[in-house]
Prior knowledge:
alpha/beta
Amino acid sequence: MNTESPLPTGNAPEWSVSDLSGALKRTIEDAFGFVRVRGEISGYRGPVASGHVYFSLKDTNAKIDAVIWKGVFGRLKTRPQEGLEVIATGKITTFAGKSSYQIVIDSLEPAGIGALMALLDERRKRLAAEGLFAEERKQLIPYLPSVIGVVTSPTGAVIRDILHRLEDRFPRQVLVWPVRVQGETSAAEVANAIAGFNALPEGGRIPRPDIIIVARGGGSLEDLMSFNEEIVVRAAAASEIPLVSAVGHETDTTLIDFAADLRAPTPTGAAEKVVPVRAELMSFVADLSRRHAGAMRRLSDRRRSDLRALARALPGPEAVLSGPRQRLDLAATRLAPALARNARAHEQVLQALSRRLEARSPRVALARLRAELAGFGRVLAAARGNAIAGERTRIAHVRDRLATLEARACNAFGQSLVQRRERGIVLAERAERAFGQALHRRADRLASLWALIRSLGPEAVLSRGYALIRDEAGALVRSVGAAQPGQALSVQLADGSFGVTVSGTEPGGAKPSASRPVRKGPATGTQGDLF
């Protein structure tokens, strides 16, 4: 038997479940309003239908639920990945629906350089497996572009170095698309700049670049993370304009370097790779021009000598034309006999065709058909005589059978007529009684319907003071707007009708006034239309 005394409950307040959950929530949020938690991401499945993200942070001994709201998830520099060790910044709160606590994350960053390098290596392998870094996708860099697009910060030293180097080597038109090269929005701005240069039309108001340089100065791995983002790598790989990557120093490597068509060690090196040295190019072109002029002179002299040698070996005009002239004379002598033979051959062909046409003449075909028709007539006459004789014999047999059947039918009809007469007398008596009853009921019903018709008919309505107004065509006038000044109308009352003439429409939509009516006498004929 339990001898312990019960717990004291005298002054302890009573809490509802909701009040207790709210008090716990306020206590925890006040105590842990800002925390940084290091752990490994577990159970990450991406955003749910609402756009929020749910997963867990764990270490070797414990695990805590984590949530990233939709608005915060879109601004994160580092996206969650299963198994990634991160440092999460946020606040601890509770969820009353499950009696659990969780961390609401505001920012996320890899836990150390090792984790960041592992993340970049995994991203590089995944994008390489898609073929974004394949050599066959890379485009050739134009030798001398007319317009160069530069994606970089407009206030840094990078753009000044590029412009100064281009001015020294070969001045070209430069379009600068200003972007942030560091920060949360940097990756999206760089990707949009690459896509924006590609979207410029050929021959538009803003010239379309022949090559794009994506440039940034040196920095730490975290500073260059914008150029490792997947959105930037995909934009560089999808660029239809050849793209040069010039991010960081020569020892710095970012993922955009693998997707670019050409990697430059520095922004200044990118300017050297996209344009040649103008002085060297002009010297080279001048040397080529001198060599070309000398080669053309030597070729002209050699061709002139060859032409003179060939001219000495050519025969004279008489020797060249003698053979064709003789062939023309021989053909002229053979032409007349050949024409005669050709005419005789065509005449023979024409005669043969004429004989074939006579054999197929409509007169011959008509005579043959007439002979065949005469034979068919004789056969038809003989067949008709045989058919008539057979039909006469068959009719005689049928006539005999009909006479026999007629005698039988007359006897049967007489007997049936006597029976039907007796039955008809009985049915006539019954029908006479039923008809009298039905006639009486129909007369009563007709009287009631006639009374109803008279009460609902147009004469009854007109007798209560209403009138029907018709135009000259007999159509009803249903509104004031349908009546025109000067129009002749007919007014039908219960005891007759008379004519009126519309004199005008009064202000405010009043009825048209009419002239003095002319009585026409009582209405006759049909009862008229009530409506």
